[in-house]
Amino acid sequence: MAELLIKACDATHENKIKDLRGCYKKGYVVVVKPDGWKWGKEELNKEKFYILRVKNADVKDLEYLTNNHEIELATEYVKESPVLGIHVSGVNKTEVENEFTKRVGKVLSELKAFGLDINVYNINEYEQTIRAPIARRRYKVDVSAIENNLKKDIVEIDLKDLKIIDQRQEQDKWQLK
Amino acid sequence: MATEVVKTVDTGGTGDYTSLTAWEAGEQKDLVTADEIAVAKCQCTTGAADTSLTTIDGWTTDSTHYIKIWTDPTESYRHDGKWNTSAYRIEVSSQWGVLLRIMEPYVRIYGLQVYNTWNSTGEPRGIQLDNDANSGGEIHIAYNLIRFGPTSDSRKVGIYTYAGFNGTEWLKVWNNIFYDCYAAMHMGIWSGVMGNVVFYNNTVCDCTDYGFYLALEAAATGDKTLYLKNNLIQGTMTNYYFYGAANLSTYDHTNNISEDATSPDLAYQNKVVTFVDEANDDFHLDSTDTNAKDQGVDLSGDTILAFSDDIDGENRSGTWDIGADEYVTTGGQTYEDSITLSSVLAQTQNRVAQVVANITLQQINSMIQSALAQMEAVLNLTKSLTQSQNAIIATFAEVALNEILTQTQDTVAQYNTEISLSSQLSQSQSASATAEAQAVLSKQLQILQQATANAVAALEMNLNLIQQQLSGHIYIADISLVLRETIELISALGAIKEVAIVTVPNIYRTLKVQPESRELLVQLEDRIIKILDKLRKINIQ
Asked: What is the longest distance spanned by two Cα atoms in chain B?
């Protein structure tokens, strides 16, 4: 069994993007803990949170409900040579490599003009994924049917009865114009 | 002044919340409208780690309404400069996750232990700054231990910030220890904005690639300032990496140690520092070290970030050490490592003194803030002349004046009825004393009577002024002078009262049995002279 700490009311922000990205709304799962978790005083405050005990589920089964919704924007490729003082980054790996090679050639040529013949120089290269946070939660729990009971005490339900809403249900209808 | 709303985060379940994430969910609000400072005081009464990933977002903050997440250094839940499983810690295995993501511009993180235990390929992070494009902002990250698993496969970054960093914002990072990272402090500002970065007295060890990493493209905008002082980097492939440092508008660096030749400070390159036990991740300075000990610059008066303690809360004095730990004469060791009673006592005294000083300073600061707020309120009131005059009187003088009025009225009444010097005079005349003694006593009492009459008249006049002030008929520019004078008058009358009801009857009784006695008369004269002096000082006599 697992216990879900669920937000009982909406937090809001006047900035609509920040409101979606940062504010907890009613039904959002805040944390998932094992059955019998010793909750704190404010977590037991029914004006702030509900606690739902889910049978036939482990913590690992339900942790996805606490994920912030992020999207991957791009992978950035970085190539650099601290010794030569060259740094190139971009989202196109081939372009980054080509540009880096070009710049290395230029620098080595200039150094040679100064009488410096550089044969050894280290190169660092790495990729980093650029992500943007979109929503505080993708999923939320529909507590409407059991809310009156949740306001009184911890409620126990079976996993199959847990009603989960995917807030991105309308995504397929969105089109780039 | 904003109200601090302190909630405890205890993973053992005895506090308000059991995780930092739950605290954030339960407390997020517009702190400016609420006029609050949100404080999460972190504890772990059972030694359990906080296993939640936390994002600070969805609030409204400003410079006096901020978020503070900390461990109290007076409690055992604050680490002692070395990883401590009995102290509060955030410990999560997350391949792509950020243990503490900050998306608000005014946040302070003090005294945490942060450990992303992910041990394979990925981009696990400790603290990441992704701020809104607000103007201004100030983030503090201090007294923390930030570490990762030992694998070299993943890009583990201690503090990561990039183009989300606002152009005029301040990021202040001091007295932290980082180890087993890919990069301890990583700032890649490609085409975004860079604000103001302060990196003081940090220790970075055993990082696979970088200690301090800054890549700043020419196209980046913002204030672009960097202050780098007293940092210590060891056991790292490239200790300091700067790409585009020439694009900084201000670059202030001094006394930064590197084990390789990358420190921006030439004299501090290629230095090996000796720690207490590097193999077991104890990065306190060893007593035998010579490269970091007493090699730093004193930052207690630094105009950008002034402080005078180290990661353990120990006082930095004399010539500072470089890095997060200040070696102390008892050995710079933890309590567990101290081997003598005197060293334990000395450290305890230091800690107690720190705690007392902190509490006192906090109290004083609260009082000052409160007084400043009151003064500001009063100053605003004086802008409106007639209303403000009465308001000031009411605020500052009413209670005191009522008290003084009551005392004055009582005193005057007493003189009029119980302490009539005329009756004393007539008693002395009828006493069985020599004519000479009688004459002396009479003369002294006459003087005293005159002085009393003058003092009482002055008091009555002051009384009248004060009453008119209270009723708003007149305005006295400095009512405090009138009050002070009134207090002095009451004091003088008090002395006269004592003479009249104690001293004079004593003289009377003495003269009755010892008509030749002059000693008491001399004493009386002395006392009257003192009273007259007092009255002269307030222009009565």
From this structure: 115
